[in-house]
Amino acid sequence: MVKICCIGAGYVGGPTMAVIALKCPLIEVAVVDISVARITAWNSDQLPIYEPGLEEVVKQCRGRNLFFSTDVERHVSEADIVFVSVNTPTKTQGLGAGKAADLTYWESAARMIAHVSKSNKIVVEKSTVPVKTAEAIEKILTHNSKGINFQILSNPEFLAEGTAIQDLFNPDRVLIGGRETPHGQKAIQALKAVYAHWVPEDRILTTNLWSAELSKLAANAFLAQRISSVNAMSALCEATGADVSQVSHAVGTDTRIGPKFLNASVGFGGSCFQKDILNLIYICECNGLTEVANYWKQVIKVNDYQKNRFVNRVVSSMFNTVSGKKIAVLGFAFKKDTGDTRETPAIDVCKGLLGDNARLSIYDPQVTEDQIQRDLSMNKFDWDHPIHLQPMSPTAVTQVSVVWDAYEASKDAHGICILTEWDEFKKLDYQRVFDNMQKPAFVFDGRNVVDAEKLREIGFIVYSIGKPLDPWLKDMPAVA
């Protein structure tokens, strides 16, 4: 029986291994992590992450050929294929601080694999890693190999949160990169055979190691660039009276461009986009490619600009101050159908409003109060370190309350900021919301989910990203 072990029971490792276990009943799959709390959650009825369809898959396989364990060394030593899906946070100090990936956790995983292995292994990079990480890992493994043969493969994930299980069931492509040697090619075929249980052969792409590593960074950079492009256009639309939805529809009907990732918003978030572009920038700089690095820097700059622009719209619309005013924040996750808050634009928007002494009342259907308080009091990039290395009980931000529904959040509020496109925010009884708010009542729609005209008929002053401005906002500055 082939045995697979995955080090790291997070957003990538957990769902990916659950689907492999479901689709390959004759393969034994173990997911290991040093976090006792996380493994306990995977073994309980309350999984540590929310992802539509995940619970059903886990329940079908858990205890049969899918196991979650803290006995890391035993499962690694018994495995034929070891996936490594550990954190690769952005460095906060030293060489490459603020851009380079911190490979501390990767290196310690590689040393542990070398230490406990008694048989040949295929080691698979599953977390997003900078180009040439495989080379470093290879050196650690071969110098500590005790005669054991290790083959390194790069198998980056291309999951979108909220649709991760569907993406795993029916992927656009599975990418496997390996060495162009007989051993390397054999390892590629072994991993390919796992995915071939359910993925059509023409969708399993094989490349050399460096192409696979770089393809992941490139894919995320291209997607983020599309979002920054449409967000840059949204600022111009507001200035000229154009409607960004109409512009992006017109652009997206060009088959060379296509309609996906052309929705204007308050900005992109998630665990990968910013981190991967920073990584790409660092690699470009290390290779003397300054102009290329500057090009990708601009994608992040426009994203930061969009969040600042949104905060400035809120403050300038409300008589140039939100000090002491209650602002309802609807949605905190970086997108709908996930509880993930990593790099969510809501963090920067909330911090911007708190900087002007606003009182925030926050509601998100999937994000806990503890997580929101943690995010608002944590330093940038700290979120990407393993949970046991994060601040244990961050000081609560006193001007923030987290409530149980949108009506409670908006009660007596001066304004509402919609920061996540949860479907329920489209269906709210906005007349009821309006009746319970301070007047004038403002809605700042950072996701273009509401019908602005209907809300204006009720009496709201509405700001929608990239849409013709409400007369109230016409003479207000968009940037500070």
Automatic annotation (TrEMBL):
Enzyme class: oxidoreductase
Stored SMART domains: UDPG_MGDP_dh_C (SM00984)
Keywords: NAD, Oxidoreductase
UniProt protein name: UDP-glucose 6-dehydrogenase
Enzyme Commission number(s) of this protein: 1.1.1.22
The organism of origin for this protein: Trema orientale (Charcoal tree)
GO CC, one annotated term: nucleus
Gene Ontology molecular-function annotations: NAD binding; UDP-glucose 6-dehydrogenase activity
Record: active site: C272
Pathway connected to this protein: Nucleotide-sugar biosynthesis; UDP-alpha-D-glucuronate biosynthesis; UDP-alpha-D-glucuronate from UDP-alpha-D-glucose: step 1/1
Catalysed reactions, semicolon-separated: UDP-alpha-D-glucose + 2 NAD(+) + H2O = UDP-alpha-D-glucuronate + 2 NADH + 3 H(+)
Residues involved in NAD(+) binding: 8-13, 33, 38, 86-90, 127-128, 161, 272-275, 342
InterPro entries on file: 6-PGluconate_DH-like_C_sf, NAD(P)-bd_dom_sf, UDP-Glc/GDP-Man, UDP-Glc/GDP-Man_DH_C, UDP-Glc/GDP-Man_DH_C_sf, UDP-Glc/GDP-Man_DH_dimer, UDP-Glc/GDP-Man_DH_N, UDPglc_DH_euk
